[in-house]
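[step 3/7] fold_predict: job queued, chain A
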Amino acid sequence: MAYTLTLFPLNYFFSFLYYTDQLSTFLVLMMSYLASKDRIILSAASGKLLKEMQSVDFETLWNFLFPHFYFPLIGAYAVFTRQTNIIWVMWMAFQLTWDILHLDLPKWVKLVLLKTTQSPKEKVRTSSKNKTRTTGNEMSLLEANVLFWSKCVVRIAPKVTPYAVIVLCFVLFVITNGGIVVGDRLAHQASVNFPQLFYFAFFAGFMLCPVMILSGPAATVAKIKKHRSLFFSLIGMALVVVYINTVVHPYLLADNRHYTFYVWKRFYEWYGISRFLLVPCYVIIWFWIWACVQWDPVVFLGFLTCLAATVVPQKLLEYRYFIIPFYILRMEIKHTEWKYLISECLFYTILNIFTIYQFIMNPFVLEGKTEISRFMW
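[step 4/7] structure written:
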């Protein structure tokens, strides 16, 4: 998997050029790796951390202490590298929070149902057995809620506080700077561009097409059948979004050095109707992703929210914006057998050879300019 992701075409190509994408991606993935170690300890412990450990060796101390206290600093450095990485810092905090909550939420729901459905006599009997005081139905339910959520806060706060500090510092930076942009503000104006979610789906589907072909359609078809109403509703909403919210950045139409220029010209502007014909493909790809990821629905929804917060404000269709969410998504897709990884490696190698060949061997001069331009992602 690591070797396959190393060959991922966008990251591989730009690693030969002076871009911040490689450092930004490295820092986010390092933060994710260290955070996952902390989350594994939380899940394994489930409220019994260190009690079941027979001995505390160096590896145990490293796995527990280092990620817990220092990996948020890597997240802060990631934000310094690229401001939009603040979204992925919040993504890590969300995952840590959910890892704690999802273990106890079923107990809380069961407790609430028990408190709200018990008769007064049963409540008195239950409270007598537990040797607790109750002052009525409302007070009993209130006490149960306060007790549950206070315990959750005590467990969550130490883990999430470092992330909260980073987010707070980022908010202060935005207020002081008058916005998120550091460079040319005219070229990086925020917009509302919901079709970016569809472009990401198309991009991810293309990059994962070997995996999609080898995995077959069975899981996707089953997911669509199970959620038929949602499937057709999403197609309808997507058609409306494409119709009223398709945004085109001037750079996209003016710069023919990039793949996005040709994709837009050959697909999205073909007779003006092609952008609507692609809508079912977007939804099908998202359902395939949903069927393949190892997240539960809450985490998947959280990922979609973070993805939207990252790409929807971007007016320009730029594939480099998709690198980090693609990496996060690919690492959670369950198809990691050799046949999938080898097919991906071969596909990525072909794309890399083609792009680098075009970059080196086919330079050209743009109309009205004298300097040499080169084709790139």
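[step 5/7] annotate
Residues 188 and 336 are 37 Å apart (CA to CA).
The chain is about 70% helix and 0% strand.
exit 0
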